[in-house]
Structure formats: structure tokens, C-alpha cells
Amino acid sequence: MRIVVDAMGSDNRPGPDVAGAVWAAREFEETIILVGDQAQIEAELAKEDTAGLPIEVRHAATAVPMDAKPTEVVKGLPGSSMHVGLGLVRDGEADAFVTAGNTGAVLAIATLRGVGLGRIPGVKRPGLGVVFPIKERPFLIDSGANADCKAEYLLQFGIMGSIYMARVHGVENPRVGLISNGEEEGKGTELVKEAGALLKASGLNYVGNIEPKEFMNGAANVAVTDGFSGNLIMKTSEAIAKYMSDAIREQMMAGPRTILGGLLARPAFTRVRRQLDPEEVGGAPLLGVQGVVIIGHGRSGALAIKHAVGQARLVVQSGVVGAIEEGIVSRNP
Amino acid sequence: MRIVVDAMGSDNRPGPDVAGAVWAAREFEETIILVGDQAQIEAELAKEDTAGLPIEVRHAATAVPMDAKPTEVVKGLPGSSMHVGLGLVRDGEADAFVTAGNTGAVLAIATLRGVGLGRIPGVKRPGLGVVFPIKERPFLIDSGANADCKAEYLLQFGIMGSIYMARVHGVENPRVGLISNGEEEGKGTELVKEAGALLKASGLNYVGNIEPKEFMNGAANVAVTDGFSGNLIMKTSEAIAKYMSDAIREQMMAGPRTILGGLLARPAFTRVRRQLDPEEVGGAPLLGVQGVVIIGHGRSGALAIKHAVGQARLVVQSGVVGAIEEGIVSRNP
Hints:
homodimer; 333 residues; alpha/beta; Isopropylmalate Dehydrogenase; eleven-stranded mixed beta sheet
């Protein structure tokens, strides 16, 4: 297997990206192709012990700026590491593409046929999935690729998410829920009501509307929503988790008794914080494009990059792309 | 001042509702009108020392079931405590209505002219606001009254929220933000883009798009969003806060050292939990109807009911309803 890692992806590129790629090459024993500025990549590689590791370097003249507008990058920056890396997957020279770069940019480039990979036939809109870092590990799709959605996109997110959870995470007949502001049928926006009717008739293991509480409790293995709402759920979760950690730390510093308590209890906090840490999760799969694409957090360190490569490997092995093609076609007569 | 309390509101009605009303009558020295089943209310009042307190009872033949569909209740249950209580406000016999009952039902009844209060002239859709129980106390509107919104509703939520925060919470020239999935202008759904343009031209102290992180940090005093997204933000916050509390407690039980630490640090947790407790916040004001309506959590205990009455009192005193009428008319030539 050959996995491309965008060396120019993370906020601190190319350090964590290269270190994570080396780590992955050693652990998974698959070929890693680092794409980006050759001189910078080689300088980073020189810091590591790479003897005997299956690592290749492919030069890319530019890197996508973190804050670049996707529309400007897609055709305006054809030599970027994202273009070159996705091109390798498109041309069959590699099996998967991993990046911690500008999410909007990689979505746009990957989705455009001829430039990146293009959509799987029949797929209306690729969806960005994410395994939520809580105990039940629910899969949220779309978590941010498509702000405005139609009901049929949501149906397809359900199909693709179900295939992903079954194949990659071994969940048998995944329960599919629809995010809404009430559990009762008929609650929600017009979009939710329409999508609910489609999902109910889909043959998926559809459990109906779920609220955030049910989502966190694992009422569904796959939670379907539009990219705007999915993004809000993800970012609100991150923001509240941080708020609570900070508030508890602050309150603990209020007196000697709680300071001592905090010191003694620290391992418990560390475990909870680590559980909720994006570093531990890896990346978000972009489902519905003609190839395997895993997008990591911009804050990714080497560990997160390594996890993302491991995830890409599982997705390739489990044949998700082919299964989605089959699943979408069979449901779109 | 005369404030109506729906005795048949909370999940455990009428106990907490009556106890909270008595508490409020004692603390605020305003007349409280308890509306609901007279026999049940009097049985609860008999448990309290109400000598000399300005409490009246008004009988209502029925109560709105917690899970009743709003559409079925509005005209189907005309003798409910919500109908009777809101009628007192409409007819000038009382100044405000407080309930911890079925939110959808009170929204529907209050909004319908002739049945409840009706909308303030010029208001397209009343919005449900909520002061978020975090340090910066941002106001989120709409938090659940209108799942599907148009841009002009969002503009009006901004106007009404701004008036509320200025008058009731004394915030000078409140900063108004628009919830989106990215801070840059142009990020978000079509609805967000349209509403952003209206807010920018509104004369409000508009600070642009805010993400959940900025919302939690207090980047805006008023955060405008549609009722579907607002509800997701609120419920995701509650769900994650509960998840973290449970996870920390569980991890602390893992060994003697962390158990001891947890015992010592308990006061710090209690303070954080209390800070985030809906009991402490009071209720959510419904803005845009012709009268003061405060809606409490179904789980409300006596303390929450008392807080909600206190909030209703502040809203009446500060003349929010008249100011909204003026503010909406002056911006809708």
C-alpha cells in the first residue's frame, strides 16, 4: 500500500507532518510518500532515523495557506502539495491521501474532477465524517463540508456513514439517526422532515430523530446532519469541554484543600482530557470522492498524523470507496 | 406589579411551581397569581407559611401535557393554565407570565393573537432567548422557537436581543454576533450570509460571524442564530457538560489516590456544576410577543421558579416590550 502524506498540512508544518509520517512508516510498514517542499522535507527527515523505512519524497512547489479561500486555491494554486498529492491518488500511484491542512481547500480540490479526485458516480455531495471522541464513538456526518444541504444529500450521508462504520469499525448493521431538535417524528426543520422520510424508506437501520443528548449516549452509530449543524455540534463540544476544564482548574486554585485534591486527582483528569483529545482520534474521512482522503486537525502533532495514516490504511483495506459506489448506485436506480 | 405563575408547568407540578411562587412573593413583595387546578394549588399552599403574602389563585380546568403537540393544544385545550394565565396578561390584569411547562405549547399559545398575546406589530417571528450559564453570560436568540428562519427574522432577533441585554442586563451598546461555521465574512449557509448583510447595515453594534468558541469566550453579548442551530448549541452544551462530569467522576473512582483527590477537590467541582446549572439561570424570555413571558426548564425546582419570577419582574420594570415595539417599528419603515 502507498499512502501520501501532505508535508505542508499542519499549522506547524512540515515538522509534525514529517515526524508523524516517519512514525507511521515504521509502525505500519507501508510506503509513505511525503509531498511538499523537497528541501524542507529533507531537512526534517534528517532529524529522524529513517534507515530502511519505505519513505519517498515528491516535490510540490507551493503550499495552501491556512486561511486561503477554497475557491481561490482550487484552480489558482495547481502546484500545491494538495494538488500533487491528490493527483497521485487519482493516477493510481497511491492509495490514500492524508493532510492536516486547510479543510475547505482539500474538500474543494478533492471533489473537483480532473483537478483532484472527483465524486463517486451517483454521489451528490461528498460528506466529511468524524468519529466523535466520546465513549460510544458515534460517527457524525456531515461535520462541515456542505453548509447548505438537500434531503437527498442527507440520505447519502446516512448510506456512506453506515458503510464506513460497518467496514472500518466493524459495527454490524449500524444504527443511523438524524440530528434534530426533538426526538418525535415531525420535529425539526423542513430539511430534517424530508430527510427523515427518505431515511425511513432507505432500508438502512434507521432509528429516527436524535437530539445531542442521545448522540452523546450512543443512540446511533451514525448521526446524519447538514454540514452547518454538524460543525456547530463539533465546535460547541470542543468549546464547552475546554470551558469546563478551565473552570475546574480555576476553581481548584481557590484554596489549599482543593489544590491538594487537584494534584491527587490529576491522573483522572488527564485520562478524561486525553479521551477527548483530537490527537487521539486521527482524522476525518471525506466520503463520496473517488479515493481515500483523511483530513486531520490543523493542530495535529506527529501522533495525530500517525493515527490519521493508520486510519487511511484501514479505510483502504476495508474497501470503503468501492462499497460506497455500490451502495449509492444500488439505491439510486 | 402582578406576575402570573403557571402552577401546572414543571415536570413535578404543582409542587415546585407553587413553592417557587411563594418564595418569590416573599422575596420580591409583588403580587403572584397562581393559575391551575385550584384544589391542588391550595393543597400545596397549605404546606407553606403564606400569612400576609400577596398570593392569589385563579382556577384553570386543565393543564397542558408535557408531550402534547403545540398545534393540538392551541385551540384544543382553551381552558388550560397557559391559556388562562396568558389571558390575564393580555387583558391587562397581570404584567407577566411565568411557566416551566411545554415550551412548544407556550410559544404557540402566546404567539397566537386572540388566544394568547399575539406578536408585537412588525415582529415577523418571536424568538426564544436564553442567557447562557457561562462566565460571560452571552444571550443566545433564537434558542428554539423557530426551526426554519428567514434572514429578516435573524435581523429582528438581533434587534430584540440587543434591547433585552441593554435594558435587563445593563450592557451598554451590546455586541451582536452571528453564529456561523467560520469567522470570515462569507462563511456559512445562504441564510447566514443574507442575515449578515442585514445585520451589518442595521445600525446595531454588529461584530460579524462568531463560532461556538468565540460565543463561549464572550465575543458577543448577543449571539443570533436560527432556532434549530440555537437549540443544538444549547443541548450539545448540556450533553457535553454532563458527559464530562460523569467521565471525571468515573475516572476518579479508579483508585484510592484519585478518590481522595476527588473528595478534597469536591468544592471546586460543585462550584463549576452549580455555575452551569439551569436552576441558577432562571428562564428564557420569549421576545416579540405583546407581553412578558418567561419560560423555565421542565426540570425546574422551586429555586428556578423563583429566579424566573425575579427575571420576569426585571423585564417588566425595564420596559423591554415597549422598547422592542419602538425598535422594530423604527427599523421597519
